[in-house]
Amino acid sequence: MKALNALRLSGAEVLPLVEGGKGVSVSNGVSAGAWAAAGGIGTFSAVNADSYTPDGRLVRQIYEGRTRRERHEELIAFGIQGGIQQARTAYEMSGGRGRIHANILWEMGGAERVITGILEGAKGLIHGITCGAGMPYRLSEIAARFKVYYYPIVSSARAFNALWRRAYHKTREWLGGVVYEDPWLAGGHNGLSNSEDPEKPEPPYPRVLALRRTMNDFGLTTTPIVMAGGVWYLREWEDWIDNRELGPIAFQFGTRPLLTKESPISEAWKRRLLTLKPGDVLLNRFSPTGFWSSAVNNGFLQELRARNERQVAYTAQALGEHTEAFATGPRGRTVYLTPNDAARARAWVAQGYTEAMRTPDGTLIFVSPEKAAEIRRDQIECMGCLSACRFSNWSQQEPDFTTGKKADPRSFCIQKTLQDIAHGDDVERNLMFAGHNAYRFATDPFYSNGFIPTVKELVARIETGD
């Protein structure tokens, strides 16, 4: 295993090892501060970050506003307050070592206002911003204003080319690096484009090389690339280290830091990670963002899959093959199905899936009365946690604050489930993001007999190549 040489990132010489930022309280000031103290770059999530009372009690994000817009303002206030507190914790824990980054999702609700408020309230405590989930053109402008480095997360050279030409060329001095996040291997929301096949993963090396060549064309030959997604043992990436073709490279670890003593996730979540098998992480498109994402294939995803499979197309009048009348809703409104779909629908109703819910695409899904009530309640209680949400039809754009489409019952309230899993122990009925290598916890001898390392022990282990 080649020795890891220090790399200059965010204004300091650090280990080229980055903690991946995981949203909604899964990467926090404690985990980020510990990673930075070990000599790398610690990343806390600035997505709905937790805040605490003066005596250390968690402030649960309970919304009092009567309208979505009022709750959206509460969400932004929660996010700024929590982000400032997490930044302070991370900075204090780092002891002046490493670097501290904040991770923000561009498509989260109020992203610009939240990161601006955090940077204003935590001046000098944050050295860099990583940002993905969308095309964050204004990221460079915000970073330059506060004199911090920015790290856009992309999954192709084409995406970075667009960002650079439109905005980033104006503030090249604050571009700390470019994060390449593999769309087939990384956990959480992934950057698969419409032209890429989710069933046909492409090797990362040619894609990263294309990114490097694009960066070289812009004079960014010494700007590091951070490889994210699928990194477990560094010995498997040894040919990337000191590779003249790729230039300076750092490695981001998102999944492995979940299983550390400093990780804030529940003990139930940590135990579940130790039991995963190959194929247990599912690449899916259920997210209300509309993006592909990777998560553990537990009861939560299985229910979503089954809900989407109990789906038929309908017409308002008899048309073509849609000849069979079918009554829906408490008023028995008639729609028309094909004879085959009508038979399927009657079978689902007989199984207890008696509620037919309309989707924006002219289809019906069949769910139980309890699930229908939960879906409607979650849609009504929306707090605008995304810039646009297909589940609730919220949009932060004025004047209507809606997407202009019907709410889509085939998705789910992402804020609700991520808050629940971050602060509870139900890992079967909540969304559990993970990278596709998470199954390696069960086979990696480092975790034998349920061993859970400290962040310092994990970083030391990674440095050995294992």
Question: What does it look like?
Answer:
The protein has 466 residues and is of the alpha/beta class. The chain folds into 2 domains: 7-282 and 440-463, TIM Barrel (Alpha-Beta Barrel); 299-423, no CATH class. Helix content is 30%, strand content 17%. The protein contains 12 helices and 18 strands. It has helices spanning 29-37, 68-94, 111-121, 139-146, 157-166, 204-217, 267-273, 299-309, 339-350, 369-380, 414-423, 455-463, and strands at residues 7-9, 12-14, 17-19, 41-45, 99-105, 128-132, 149-154, 178-181, 188-190, 225-228, 249-253, 281-284, 292-296, 311-313, 324-328, 333-337, 355-358, 363-367. It has an 8-stranded parallel β-sheet. The protein has a 3-stranded antiparallel β-sheet with strand order 9-13-12, with no helix packed on it. Helix 1 packs parallel to helix 2 and helix 5 (157-166) packs parallel to helix 6. The chain is globular and about 70 Å long. The chain starts with 6 loop residues before the first strand and ends with a helix. The model has no long low-confidence stretch (mean pLDDT 94).
Specify the biggest β-sheet: 8 strands, parallel
Overall pLDDT: 94
Helix content: 25-40%
Beta content: 15-25%
User: How many structural domains are formed by the residues?
Assistant: 2
Point out poorly predicted stretches: none
Structural class: alpha/beta
CATH topology of the largest domain: TIM Barrel
* CATH homology superfamily name of the largest domain: Aldolase class I
**Inertia-based shape:** globular
Q: What is the CATH class designation of the largest domain?
A: Alpha Beta
Please, how many helices?
12
Strand segment count: 18
